[in-house]
Structure formats: structure tokens, C-alpha cells
């Protein structure tokens, strides 16, 4: 080959190498170049979605600077078919290389669904059906007491049945774990009965520290053969198990025959009224040992406990006084237009009116529990336990009627 030809070949090879080197340099520069997105972004890769479609969407969202570089990098690294469906969080200013590694890692965004204690199975199913990110339908709800309230994590697209199975196995595992450590002398002998009482304790208080004590009160009443007389069981009865009562309980509710009405029936209801949490289950298996058999709301979210019926009545009286003071808000003075007395001759000549203040409401007729109720009202029985809600009814009914004469007010209440 002539000298000129060899020189031309060398120049061609050199130019080719330069171009190739520049291309390689440009490729890696674009592969590791950060995007301009200043905040983390959540992206969703659908099941079976092609890589090209994923790359185009990332480009549209400003996460990729070059679709071609992303696709070539995926093919050269063998990761083009390894991108997994799911929800991913892309950090701020991520490079194409970082995004590709995230999409093949399978480390999807963790979602959470929290199921509060004390919900019925139907209410829990409603929560699952309304939770974004879960997929699929659910079978009919299981009986109350089968599902463990807790916070459950999942990835986008997880079947609802998977969460349901975890809740069912969680409740089974919890009762099996706690059952061997129960007190030996409990008035119930099966796990199912323990769950029934745990569901009542769950609905009676929102304070975890009170649960063992309330469980102890119920245990004492069961041992004495007393009716539990707990309001949540009546709510369950009158709402057909929905536990959604948008009014106060009435005396008629308490007297309505129903298998779950513990004001009418002795012993435990036939099944749980809700799904209790771990703390309530543990409370009924290891209740606080006490001689208390009564409790009533203290007005602050907790309860006051007592051993005798007289103490219980005083506690109710104190609670009702506090409620009465809270409700006795001074009424605003109102003025009414009243025509002054006039003689017939001056009546046509005068139309002046004088403002007269309205009389201040008299709250002295509001009765409390240590005063006898009206004749048609039911006197407190020594079997009565909580009556938190029923006492409200007594206050309202008494406030609408004239006060009893002093001689009748001082008459002793009749108890059983």
C-alpha cells in the first residue's frame, strides 16, 4: 500500500476511535447524569407493562434525561426483563442508573392500613374495601372475634384476601399465645368465652390502663351470678350488630328481650360484639383482682369504681352533678316587646314599647341519683352497673318536669 493510503487509513481509524470514544463518554455521562426533580417521586409500574412505556412515562415526568440511554443500559445489563411491577419511590435528582436499579430491586413502597380495636367485622371489611392500593373482593365477613385489629403493611396491588388471612391468623396466634398464662380461677373456660368478654371490655373503655380493672369487675359479677348490665351489649342488640347507634339508649332499650342484652340475661352474650385488641384479651385472661362490682363514668374518659351499691350511687351522683354544672350554661338575656298598659283614650296616641328581660331559667328541678326519680322512672337496682348513658335520659326527663314537693323528695329510695 502506498504511503498516502496508509496515512489515510490511520486517520480513518483515529477518527473512528474518537467518535466511538465520544459516544461511549456521552452514553455514560447521560447514564449517570442526575435529573432536575427536587423531590422524591412515587412511580407505578403496572404488571406486564413494556419497558419502553415505562421509560416514556419516566421521561414525561422529568425523571429521565434520555429514553434511549435508559433502554440501552437496561438491555446491555440484562435488566430489561427484570423490571418488577409495583410502586417505587424515586429519590430527588436520581440518575437513569439509579432508577433502573430501583425498578429491578423489588423494594416497593410500603403502604399501611390501620384497623382500630373495637370494630365489628363488617366495619373492618368496609375499611379494607376503602383502602387505596388493595385489590380484589372479599368473602362475607367472619363472625366478630375472628380478626385481630392492628396495623398491616402491604404493597400496591396486594389482594385484600391476603390482609384478611393475616388478620385471621393474627387473632388465632394471639389468643393461643396468651391463653396459657391466664388466671386459673376464671369463671369462663374456653378461648371463645374469653373473646366474648374481651370484646365487652374493649367497648367499655378507651384507656388501656383501665382494662384489667374493668375485666376484674365483670369477673366478680359473673362469680356472684349478677347480670353484667353493660351498655355496649344493648347497643349491639338494638342495632342488629352494627354498633352504630346515633342516639342515647333508653329504658325501653334495656328492657328489650335479645340474646345479647346483658340487662335482661345473666352470663356472657352468645358471641363477641366486636373484634378486641391484644390488650383487652390479655386483660380478661389476667384481670385485676379486686372486690369492686360497680363502675361509672367519671366525665373525663375514665371510670370511678366501687365495692358497694351505696358507693356506686354516690359516684353516680357526683358524676351527674358535674354533668349538670357543665350543661348549665348561663342563658343570654332576651328582650321582648310588651305594650304598656294604656287607657282607651291614649291607646291610639301611643305605640311605645318597653324591653323586659326574660326570666332566668330555674335549674333547681334537675334531679340527681340520690334523690328519688319520678314515679314512672325506674329506681336504681343493686344489680345496676354502669348506667352511663341511661343517667343522661334521667337528667333530661327530670329537667322537663316540675320538681317534686319537699316531702316527696325526702322519701327514701326503694332498692332490691
Give a structural overview.
With 416 residues, the chain is mainly alpha-helical. 43% of the residues lie in helices and 8% in strands. The strands form 4 sheets. Strands 1-2 form a two-stranded antiparallel ribbon. A hairpin with a 5-residue loop joins β5 (294-297) and β6 (303-306). α6 (160-178) packs parallel to α11 and α8 packs across α11 (278-285). Residues 4-22 and 343-416 have low confidence and may be disordered.
Mean pLDDT: 78
Radius of gyration: 37 Å
From the coordinates shown, what is the CATH architecture of the domain at 29-105?
2-Layer Sandwich
User: Which superfamily, in CATH terms, is the homologous superfamily of the domain at 29-105?
Assistant: Endolytic murein transglycosylase
Residue fraction in strands: 5-15%
- CATH topology of the domain at 29-105, by name, is Dna Ligase, domain 1
List the helices and strands and how they pair.
Blueprint: H1 3-32, E1 41-45, H2 51-60, H3 67-76, E2 86-90, H4 96-105, E3 111-114, H5 121-130, E4 151-154, H6 160-178, H7 191-204, H8 211-224, H9 231-238, H10 251-255, H11 278-285, E5 294-297, E6 303-306, H12 309-327, E7 335-338, H13 344-347, E8 354-357, H14 388-399, H15 406-409
Helix pairs in contact: 6-11, 7-8, 7-11, 8-11
Question: What is the structure about, briefly put?
Answer:
By secondary structure, the protein is mainly alpha-helical.
